[in-house]
Amino acid sequence: MEYRTLGGGGAAVSHLALGTMTFGGETDREGAFTQLDTFLEAGGTLVDTADVYTGGTSEEIIGAWLADRPADVTERVVLATKGRFPTSGEPNGVGLSRRHLTRALDASLARLGVDAVDLYQVHAWDPWTPVEETLSALDSFVRAGKVHYVGLSNFTGWQLQKTVDAADALGLARPVTLQPQYNLLVREIEWEIVPAAEENGLGLLPWSPLGGGWLSGKYQRDTVPTGSTRLGEDPERGVERYAGRNAQQRTWDVIDALQRIAEARGRSMAQVALAWLAAQPVVSSIVLGARTTEQLRDNLGSADLELDGEELVALDEASDPDPADYPYGGPGENQRSRKLTGGR
Questions:
Q1: Residue 53 catalytic?
Q2: End-to-end CA distance of the chain, in Å?
Q3: Of all helices (H) and strands (E), which one includes residue 101?
Q4: Are 215 and 254 in contact (CB under 8 A)?
Q5: 173, 296, 320, 323: most buried, per Cβ within 10 A?
Q6: What is the reported pLDDT for 246?
Q7: Catalytic option among 53, 120, 182, 219
Q8: Percentage, residues of the chain above pLDDT 70
C-alpha cells in the first residue's frame, strides 16, 4: 500500500480508501466487519462514509466495529464522513446551513461512537446557503476539536474556487480534499475541476473508480445485465445505466484496452483501471466501493500495480472524452497557452 497526504493537509492516508455506502444494505454487518478487517490488514487506513448511507446504518456499523476492535487496530483508521443531504423531511433537515450541519455532525459522531472525525466533507453544493455560513460552521467544528480536516464533495470548478477563496479571505478552515466521480469513463472533470483542485492544493478522493462495475469487465455489449450485480438488479441505475453506456463506442474502446493490458499483465481489469486512476495528478486516495469481500480483495490487489508509459497512453487514448473545440478542445486550449519565446 502506498501512502499520500490528505490533499493539502499533513495527515497520511492509504492511496486506496474503503467506501462504505453498501454497509447495512448490500453488505450486512458481518460482511462489513470482514471488509474493514481485510482493508486494515492490507495496510489501508482511510475509511469513508456519510450520514445518509443506508439511513445512518453505515455509520452505526463502523461505530460498532471500532468499539469491537483493539486500540492498536482502530488507531490506524483515518475516518471520514459527510453531511448535506436530507436526514429528515423538515425544511431544515437538509443543506449546508449552520443549523443542519451542526445537528448532522453531532448525529454522525454519536453513530460512529467517536469524539471527532478526521475528515468532514460537505456532500454537495447548497445554492440556498451562503458559502461563508457553511465555512464558518465548519471552522467552528475544527476549533471545537470535532473535526480535524474539512473537505468538499461533488463540487464543480467554480464552486470549489469560490469556497477556497472565501475560506482564505475570512481566515477560516480551508478545504483539503474534493471527492468527485472519476474513472476512465468519466474524465470530464479534467477540464475544469482537476485543474482547480491542483491550483488550490486539494487532493482528489475519486468515487466510483470502476464506473459502477463497467470497468471490471462484467458487462457485455448489447446484452442487458441480469442477476446479482448493480445493473443486473436495476439496468437504469444512475449515471452508469446500461442503455446509455452500451450505446457509446468509447465505452467498449475503454473496456477493450483494459482487457488487453489486464491479460498481458496477468491482472484483473479492475486492478488495471484502479492503477490508471492512482497515476492521475492530485489523487490522494481512491474510494473503493466493493459489495463483497472477494471484490474488495481483488481491488486491493491493485496496490502494487504500476502501469508503464505505453499502457497509460493506451488507456488515455481509448478513454479520451474528445471535448468540443471550444472551450476545452484544441483551439480553446491554444488560446490559454503561449510560448515564452514570443509569437504564438
A1: yes
A2: 45
A3: helix 98-112
A4: yes
A5: 296
A6: 81
A7: 53
A8: 97
